[in-house]
Design brief:
Layout lengths: L2 H18 L1 H9 L7 H16 L3 H16 L1
Helix pairs in contact: 2-3
Length: 73
């Protein structure tokens, strides 16, 4: 695998993580030094967009499953 292919793969992984992890990303930005900045506005807008499209469902389902498993112990 060439350096260019690795870089492309890294970008793809970051994009997929941003798609399915918009909620924790927005929470992290809100709790960071970027709170109240355009970065937070962008993260909140991204969270809103992914929620309207339904891309937040896999993350929410995984969290519910993990919480159920934790409560079972």
């Amino acid at each position: 695998m060439t350096a260019r292919q690795r870089f492309g793969l890294a970008l793809l992984v970051c994009f997929v993580a941003a798609l399915f992890g918009a909620r924790p990303l927005a929470g992290w930005v809100a709790a960071s030094a970027f709170a109240g900045t355009p970065v937070q506005q962008a993260a909140d807008a991204w969270l809103d967009l992914t929620g309207r499209v339904g891309l937040d469902r896999p993350y929410d389902a995984l969290r519910r499953t993990i919480h159920r498993l934790e409560d079972a112990h």
